[in-house]
Structure formats: structure tokens, C-alpha cells
Amino acid sequence: MNRWTSAAAVKAISAAAFVGFASQAVAADVTWERLLNADKDPNNWIMYHKDFTGWHFSGLDQINTSNVSNLRLAWQHSPGAQKRGIQSFPLAVDGVLYYTNTSGSLWALNGATGAPLWNYRAKIDQERAEGTFYNPYNRGLAIGHGHVYMATTDGRMIALDKNTGEVAWDNEIMSVAKGNKGFTGAPLIVKDMVLVGANGGELSGCCGPIFAVDAMTGEVRWQFDTIGGDQRSRDSWGNDSWKIGGGGGWMTGSYDAAQDTVWWGTANPAPDYDYIGEDWMTAGPRPGLNLYSSSVVVLDADTGELSAYFQEMPHDAWDFDSATGNFLLMEKGGKRYMVHPNKGGIMFVYDPDSVGGGDELAVHNAYMVGETYNYIKGVTRAGRLVGRRELPEGMNTDVCPAIDGALSWNTGAFNPNLGLHYFVTQEFCFDIEVVNPERPDDYSGQAYFGASWTSKAPKQKVDGTPVDSAYGTLQARDPLSGKMKWRVEFKYPVLASLMATRGNLVFVPGADGMFMAFDARNGKLLWQHNNGLGHHGGVISYMVGGKQYVAVVTGWGSHVSGNFPGLFGEPFTSMPTDGGNLMVFAL
What we know:
3% helix; mainly beta; five-stranded mixed β-sheet; 39 strands; single chain; Methanol Dehydrogenase, Chain A
């Protein structure tokens, strides 16, 4: 962990901010106290994961199982054409809706009518942004301390006045000195700091940093390096390969107030894929466990010091990293638990009170939720992988799941009244040819990828049931035991996030454009609306003037969705990848 004491230089910006068509009273500030108690505020959705429980649960029930069939489109907003659609989560604060698109444009809208209040467009260094993989992406915002915060693909954090859109500060907080990286995930406010993690697991750089910056000035307060940040990490990368090790934390973590800790999932090591096969502990391009890649790290909120960790994928050979940021904090029988999904299709159930001293987290349970996996034979209750399938140099056929994982960055949801955890899986595989890439220069930021592949349908489920096409599932399980309550199968895997509500609904934005509401108790489809374009962003609910609204973003074109034309043909062959809208529904 490195402490920074000097403020980053304020960069010149290019923005367009304007007062829109609707007059709006100045909303109350989003204070740290308000963020801490966001779970008690059903009328607003003031952070990426709704609140620090990570449940993605709306306490509103005006829309419920008895009347959801009457749900209608109230208004919609188009931010204009953008590459790769919209992947962000809207935020709703005191009647104002905020959201971003992939190109770094941010809108503030009247939550009841959709009338624009202001718009900001960041001037992005395109050469630097395009030097990272899977851009342009922007998955959301943070709001607090009078500001709206947005991180950018060229390594900056921008703070805007939340009522006017005027720039408060615009700081480059990550240089390219140790590899070309940027930010795609939504920031997280913790106390008087704003936290964000870097992307770049496919790049030959170091050190996959997670930053905390001062919310009022943009000065970097602390930095945790997921790769090479301490001696234990460096010792786990043979031949000093940590200097080209990738890593990062590209999605949004969470905060545990009881222990004053930050929880963050980390990205894959570089090179992505390892040609050496079973000899990975002693040979190959990155010998060893490769800490703290593909791990969960728990950090002291004030200092960024490592409090605990667990490597979910030791020496990740499949790109099944842990950067999925959905941490579900819950209590049962007087004991607390933290549930975290891994891309490999494993749910890990941690003891959030087993922190301190930088040691391994205690694992209460771990269980498989993917249905067609063969990269391992299973996982123990203690979270240890069983029966690894290594991918040595050459062609490896029918590897399941594909690089995109059984689970992805899109979030699940939890209904505390029913005790059920809802999430989606994607069931497709690939043929992958692993190569021995030339080692780049240390800290060079060059692409460091060791494979090419073709996605394909699975041949069978783990239980031996034959399969002849790719598919997806919506599962409802007890989050601690993993016991299945109900399951819905989709022709097309769902790539968007879910929302559960007190009205006993689960909202699911489908890949084919269908926006659906299921009965949270039994999985019965109760309502659907064709939004005309695939979804891979967020869905939220909020209340304005005594009326409940449900907001979802449409827009298609992510890396994962690029597999769909080959897997399924239409409607994905001709589905546009340069559009998207914010769609808002009400009774």
C-alpha cells in the first residue's frame, strides 16, 4: 500500500452543462450518514448496489404481484448514439435520475417526466482509452458530498456539482507509468473518500491498483496494489512476473461498517491463460499462486492496508476472476455472512468478521451454480478447487464455461423477506487455442494474451444431461446453503442485472429486449415488455410524488454479447450495437 500526499494536477476539461426544461428544487445533500442508512430509504437508489447490503432490493411495493400486469412505459430518454450500448446503473436521488452512457456522457433528468436538467460530456483521451481492453465502457456513478463522481477510461476521476453539472474537479489519478489502464466501474463513496479500481488484467503492467481519493479535492489518499503490493504477493509470482502481472479491480466493491473494511473483487493475472499446464507452480510465464489476482481482498477503510483476503482462483488459468463486485451482506441466527459470486460459477460464503492481520478469510460454504462446467470437478465447502483442468499449449476443446464465465459482472438480487438470492447464469463453452506469447517489457502496458477461441454450445450438463444449444438460467437459492428454490431457463443468457422488490417481484432485463417481472416466490412470469434492444445494464426502482417507478437501461454491444450472433443468429445478428435508451415504467 502506497500513501500519496500531493494533490493530482487539475486537468482542463471539456463539458457541456445546461439547465433543462424542468424546474427542480435543490435536493438534499447525500451525506455519509445518508449513505450508511441507504437500506432504510426505499424511495431513492443512491448508490450502485442500492446500499451496503448489496441486495439490489427495493423496499417499495406499490408495484406488486397483483398489479404488475398493468405496468406501462411512463417515459424514456435517449442519450444519443454510443458505441457498445449502455451498461450503467441509473441512480435516483430526491426525484432526479442520473445515468451515464459508454462514451463518458452523464445526464441528470427529472425522475417523474424525463425532462433534462443538465448534461455533461467528458473529453476522453481516446488513444489512451482505446489502449485498454473492452472499451469504451462506463458502468455508473457515485453521488455524495454535493457531487456526482464519474471515473473514466483514461484514468481520471471527475466530480460534478450534483445540482448544476458544473465541474468541481477533474483529476488524473492513475498514470500510465506502470501499464496503460483506466476505469470502467462505478466509484464507491466511503466516508469522505471515493474509491475506484483499475482495469487491465489483460495488459503487461502492474499493479492493478485500487484507489481512494479525497471526495472534495481528488487528492489520492491511499492506493492498494492487487499485484506486487506486498512481499507475499511478489513471492507468489516467479521470475519477477508480478511486474507484468495484470490484475486490478474493475467493478464496484462494498463497505462493511461493522468492521470498517472495504471488500473488493480482483481481476485476472497476465498473461491471460498459461501455456505451461500442470507445472504452473514452478514453470511458465507466471509461476506460483499469483496473489492477489482473482481474489477477494478486504482493506482497512482508512488506510487501504490489507486486512484479509481469499484467492478464489489460485493461479487463474481460465480468466474466471473475482472482479464481479456483488457482495451480499446478511445475518442469520446472530451470525453475519458475506456472499460473493465468482465468474467460474461458484458462490463463496465468507465470514466477514474473520478479518485482521492480512490472513485468509474464513469460508463458511462454497457451492457451484453453473450447470455445464468442466474446468474443475467441483469445490469444497472450504472454497478449495477440486480436479482442475489445465489448458496447456495447443488446442483445448469443449472447455466450459467460456472465458465469459458462468457468472459475469451483472448483479443478482436478494429478497430478505423470502430469504432468496436471485441470479443468472450463462451456459456456453468454447474451443480455445493456447499459445506461448512473448514476454513484454516490464510495466509496458502491452496486451499480454495467450489464447484465441471460438464460442460454442455445451454438449452436456454436469449431471450428464445432453445439451444441444447454449442457454441461460435464472435461479432462486438460499444464499448460505445453496439449496435451490426454483429455476427458470432462458433461450438466451441474461447479461443484465436483476432487482428484487418488497412487492415480491424479480425484474429481469433480457438479452433479446424483453423486460420481464417474475413472481419472487415461485418464478412465474407475470409481465413483460419488449424494449426493442438487448439489455446489459442496471435496473432500479424509486418513488417521486407518491408514485413508484422502475427504470432500466437498454443498449447492446458488450464483449460477452459479441458471442451471441454465432451462438444464436437472429435477433442478435442484426441487433444494433450503437444505441440505447433509459426506459422508465409506472402503473
